[in-house]
Amino acid sequence: MKEICAIIRRDKLPETKTALAEAGYPSLTIQSVEGRGKQKGDVACTLADMDQDGAACNSLHVKLKPTPSTYALEHALPKVALFVPKRMITMMVPDDAVDTVVAAIMKVNSTGQYGDGRIFVCPVDAGLTIRTGERDDEMAVV
Question: Domains of the chain (ranges plus CATH)?
Answer without folding.
Answer: 1-41+83-142 (3.30.70.120), 43-80 (no CATH)
